[in-house]
Each structure stands twice: as structure tokens, then as C-alpha cells.
Amino acid sequence: MPTATPIFPQTPKVQFGTLLTTANTAKDGTGTVVQISAVAGASGAFVESIEALPIGTNVASVLRVFLNNGSTPATAANNILWEEVSLPATTLTEVAAQTKVVVPLNRAIPAGYTLYATIGTTVAAGWRVRVHSGDY
After folding, report:
1. How far is CA 42 from CA 19, 39, 125, 128, in A?
2. Whose CA is closest to 58, among 99, 17, 110, 28?
3. How far apart are CA 38 and CA 13, in angstroms?
4. pLDDT mean over 98-106
């Protein structure tokens, strides 16, 4: 019986997109989207987690993450809703930490693929999203 040889990411990456403040109610990855990860390398990539950090006072929303096949996200057929998670309402304070939302993924993506994100409700201060990944 053949044995599998485990592989591990060779090039660690921490990527982040521009600030998310504007609502996008499309569930197909089109519209106002922000690229949050680098394009996966020639052998693909492993995505460990996504973290959403508020930068001030925001109403509650939802973070939607789309897997894109490397082509334009403006074409719905190039995207798939990969994950979504509720984002709590946040209040800016100088005496307590803001609520960070962590989405553990631990999934591989094919070469040339990337991740985009949207939020479902327009917010005041915004959310910064970062991706922990690595190319094989």
C-alpha cells in the first residue's frame, strides 16, 4: 500500500486587504470586494486562518469570504462563497480590547486562486481583514 508524504507550506505569508466599510449584499463574489490574500503559488497554498479586526465603532455585520479562481471577481462564475461569519457591533474604547473575529480554515487552495472579502452592512470605522497562509 502506498504511503502519503505530508507536505508543508514553504513560504509563509500574512496578507491583508484594504479597509472594509461598504456593504455588499451580493452572495456571488461580485460587486464591492477586497482582495485579502496573495495569489496562491505554482503548487497551491495552505490557508490557516482569517482574522477580522475592527478599527473603531461599527454596527453588527457579516464577513463573507469568496474563493476566486484567479480570474476577474466581477464574473460570478469565477467565485464561490467559501466562508461567512457574523461580525459583532463594536465600540471604540481606550480601556478594553476590540473584539477580533478568527475564522480557522486549515484548507489548501489551488495554484492561481485567491481570496476576496465583503461585509453585509455599511459600517462607520471599518474592519481590517488579514489572512495567514503559505505557498507550497
Report:
1. 28, 9, 37, 27
2. 99
3. 8
4. 94
The full DSSP string for 13-69 is EEEE-SPB-SB---SSS-SS-EE-SPPP-TT-EEEEEEEEEE-S-B--EEEEEEEE-
End-to-end Cα separation, the chain, in angstroms: 25
Contact predicate 14/50, CB 8 Å: no
Span 35-52, mean pLDDT?
A: 96
pTM of the entire predicted model: 0.92
Rounded Cα distance between 53 and 36, Å, is 13
Strand partners of residue 85? 63
